[in-house]
Amino acid sequence: MASYLRSWLTATPVAEAKPDDSIPTFTRVSPPPDDDEGSETETEGPDNDTPPAFPSLLSAQRVQSAPKIPLDSQLMPPPALPNSALGVNLAGVRSPEATSSLSVLATTTKPVKPTKKRDKVALAPGHSPLDWALLKSSGTDLRGVDTLTRIPPSVLKKHNKKDDAWSAFYGKVYNITPYMAFHPGGERELMRVAGRDGTKLFATTHAWVSADFMLDACLVGFLAPEPSS
């Protein structure tokens, strides 16, 4: 029995089996931790991809580069200087000590006199501009002639009476007799152009009025030069 135990204890150990290189082996590797499971000191919040301001909003560089807004006192024009400071005395004569080219000189502009206002006369009932327009469109003969003709100045000047008045405006001759009672300036003003060319007076007193539109129904002819003898 003792010899048996002795032989068992002194027996040659069996060689450990070596792994076969032809058989692949796999090593289990633990996955890396997620970003969300990182440090406990990381604060949770919405993602913000906006880069930080550079330079910082409170940095000295940003304060120095900020545009300066002018004050109201800097935007206001300088106050006007008295006449003595501009080199002009109270009498309007340039003082000898004034050397600036910006000095104000005495004005020589004369005041413009207002033109005399033309007075309108009171028209009789039924002689308003609307009544004249109705008379023109009524078909009444306001010409007093059968056909339009060429009228020289010698023929025009014969029609210078109140009951037979012709006048020329812009090369056209009109019988202004029917318009006498409808003229806002009165018959007296209209008789100033009876028997002659009234274009200049018409343009001076009321150039904005169309003579042809007002007297188209009274057209008798066209102003022509005197025939050669």
What are the key terms here?
Flavocytochrome B2, Chain A, domain 1; 9% strand; 21% helix; five-stranded mixed beta sheet; alpha+beta; 8 helices; single chain; rod-shaped; 229 residues
Write the layout of secondary structure elements.
Elements: H1 2-9, H2 60-65, H3 72-75, H4 129-136, E1 149-151, H5 153-156, E2 160-161, E3 164-169, E4 172-175, H6 187-190, H7 199-206, H8 211-215, E5 219-223
Parallel strand pairs: 1-5
Antiparallel strand pairs: 2-3, 3-4, 4-5
* SSE order, one letter for each helix or strand: HHHHEHEEEHHHE
Fraction in beta strands: 5-15%
**Which regions have little confidence, pLDDT < 50, spanning 5+ residues?**
84-88, 95-100, 103-108
Overall body shape: rod-shaped
CATH architecture of the domain at 129-223: Roll
Alpha-beta classification: alpha+beta
CATH class of the domain at 129-223: Alpha Beta
Calculate the mean pLDDT score and round it: 74
For the CA atoms, what is the radius of gyration? 57 Å
The percent of residues in helical segments reads 10-25%
- By DSSP (H or I, 4+ residues per run), the number of helices equals 8
The CATH topology name of the domain at 129-223 reads Flavocytochrome B2, Chain A, domain 1
Strand order of the largest sheet: 1-5-4-3-2
Distance between the termini: 186 Å
CATH superfamily of the domain at 129-223: Cytochrome b5-like heme/steroid binding domain
Q: What's the main sheet like?
A: 5 strands, mixed
| Strand tally | 5
